[in-house]
Amino acid sequence: MIIADVPYGPAEVERGYADRILRVDLSHNTIQVEVLPEDFKEKWIGGRGYALKLIWDGTNEKTRYDSPENILVLAGGPLGAEPLFPGTGKFIVGTISPLTGTFIDSNAGGHFAPLLKLAGFDALAITGIAKEEVVLCIDADAGAIRLMRAPQGEGSISYAEELIKNLCQGKKREAIAAVAAGIGGKHSSFGIINSIFYDTRRKRLRAKQAGRGGTGTVMRHKGLRAIVVTSNLSRSQANRPADLDMVKEAGRKLKHIIKIQDPRGIRLREWGTTGLIDHMNEFDILPVHNFQMGAHEEAQRLYGDVFRDEYFSSGYPDGCYYGCNLACSKGVEGITLQSGPHKGREVSVDGPEYETAAIAPATGIFDPLFVLEYNWYCDEYGLDTISTGVTTAFLMECTQRGFLTADDCGYPLRWGDREAVFRLIHELASGEGFGRIAGKGIRFLKGWIAENYGRSNNGDSETVRQELEKFGMECKGLEFSLYITKESLAQQGGYGFALKGAQHDEAWMIFMNQVNNELPTFELKAKALKWFPLFRTWFNATGLCKLPWIDVRHPEAANTSEPAKNLPSAQYFVEHYNGTIGTDKGLEDLLRDSERLYTLQKLINLKHGVGTREHDQIPLRAMSPVYLEEYRSRQERYDRQLAEVVGGEERLPEDLQQRLDLLIGIRQKQYQELCDAVYQEKGYDRNAVPTQETLAAFDLLDAETQALIEKYGAND
Which of 494, 492, 489 is nearest to 504 (CA)? Predict the structure, then answer.
């Protein structure tokens, strides 16, 4: 049944932009094509920038994830959809998060954003709440945009597959893409949105995920089951760049570096991101047992060569979009599920990525088949693999330390218990049993467990809560991405200062700091904590993947003044931008443009009450060992560090607990010193509030923002 049907003519793309936004109000079933003013793209770039501006203008401090006025924005960028350059299939989904209560965005790959651009739109902005579940169809070939009643079904990828089969008969499969949310978004706070496209090599639909912060939860709450976009327009020169030769040459140079350097580095084309397990285990920063330990002898069962040799399909250079020779998006065919409602079914698995594979050591299950089945169920249910796994690991440690029992959950949650992990996943998806509680995330669970434990044991709930805060791995409400940070001050700051919460997207400095040792001084760390998020913000605004920049090291980078920035490769991105848009900007110009977006995101956080120094604090385990067994696991290292501070090993306390307490104090002081240094770099006051000068520099100082910073005592 068609609810609304609007004819339209797709706008032509010019220099990377269609200059159109599609606005859909689900409460009133209205569809509107909005023409953007010329200066909009100059100031807000695209992707994350468009989402930030739309949400800043369209929401207020009382807007929550389930408010009708909350906006779900899906936006690509001006450099996306270009097969001549690697990594151009990215887009972001931005909204107010059910986990953090403020702006969240999550990026995904695939063909959705390129086809949306060919259909004539730089972004979708969806408001309202549908009276009944709906599907949005954008058919550029027919010149029609339709809202229709959603078919029944609670999966995510399988739902989109049936939808495409029924709605798009007679169309080329590669001319169709979709996004969909599953049942996990209906019953948990960390539902995802799957970006679904047809893989011409594998001859099946594949999925990439906008996984963080509950974007799928917002989509399901709005009653939007899926969005389907179709366009048969040629992908070649889809951006109609200002200087095609410049774009070609920039892409040629970057592809050459990828071809030469990736096999010498992380080997993403060969192993995908699972190869990071090798490095994290080697450098003692793998999140074993809820980030307690950094390495495990059984982790070798999860190494990149294991997945390559035993599971990844050979002969498939898997890129998220045409033209990417990094091709790190792996897939596994013919896996038989061992448990759950689909037991015995043979499935294909997209991935796994490192973050999903690392859930295995986090929960103590060192089995690649567990990883693959976990990956498939989370994707099909529409659950974030990171938040699901880190929440599970937290609950396992609560059981280990006596704060949670089988009676509380309905079954024990213990390290290495595969059956318990899957039972919890199925309950998260269905909203039944303990899954109804666990699906609210770690921040909620810390309060729930403390209150429950205190009531059951005549204990002090507040004391229990303080203990749980030490190892409940979340910041700003978002569960940690899967890297040990206690041995990397830069990565501690990366997670603490990340505006969306502890997500590697704007904070992945673990390699440059821990592995490559490119930030050896405190000053370099503080400076990197300003510039790195600006690089990442720019990538998410322009529609690009960051991996070709940060994970493939240019051979000349080491000879530059700032090796961590990988400047020779960064210049290729500058050339791609100038060649597409027709500008003559340098890298610093682009980072300044990015800083405007970053500063606006900080203002949105302040509007929602989560932008000050207290919200940049991280769990104790993120900066230090918490318990004696953690200290003992690295005692030689910790004793050496303490000896340097106190003036020799002979001055160390004999009692190990005293040594641990001393180390904790040092690490906490160090983190606060980092806060002061980074805030100064960013142009904030000591409470992490931007100064008037900072806001004025980016044309963001007006009566509204002045009142906002004054609320927090800025410039007193």
Answer: 494
Residue 5 to residue 2: CA distance in whole angstroms? 7
**307: enclosing H helix or E strand:** helix 304-310
What span, in angstroms and rounded, lies between the C-alpha atoms of 157 and 178?
Answer: 9
One domain for residues 226 and 289: no
Cα dihedral sign for 645, 649, 652, 657?
positive
Q: What is the CATH number of the domain that holds 415?
A: 1.10.569.10
Average pLDDT for the chain? 95
DSSP secondary structure letter of residue 550: H
What pTM did the predictor assign?
0.97
| DSSP for 489-541, written as a single string | HHHHHHHHH-TTSS-GGGT--HIIIIIS----SHHHHHHHHHHHHHHHHHHHH
The two three-digit tokens of residue 135, written as one number: 């599907």
- Given a cut of 70, whether residue 144 has pLDDT beyond it is yes
3-state secondary structure 471-495: HCCEECCEECCCCCCCCCHHHHHHH
Confidence band of 508 (pLDDT split at 50, 70, 90): confident
Q: Is residue 338 located within the same domain as residue 436?
A: yes
**Sheet (strand 193-199) strand order:** 2-7, 144-149, 134-139, 224-230, 176-180, 193-199, 204-210
Whether 715 has a pLDDT exceeding 60, the answer reads: no
Q: What is the DSSP letter of 410?
A: S
* Strand intervals (E) in 581-682: none
What pLDDT, in 10s, does the model give residues 545-563? Answer: 999 999 999 999 999 999 9
C-alpha span between 693 and 276 (Å, rounded): 41
Regarding whether 270 and 226 lie in a shared domain, the answer is: no
Domain range for residue 116?
2-230
How far is residue 447's CA from residue 468's CA, in Å, rounded to a whole number?
A: 9
Of 443, 459, 479, the position where a domain reaches its end is 479
The per-residue pLDDT for 319 is: 87
Say whether both 159 and 278 belong to one domain. Answer: no
- Determine how β-strand 20-25 pairs with β-strand 123-127: parallel
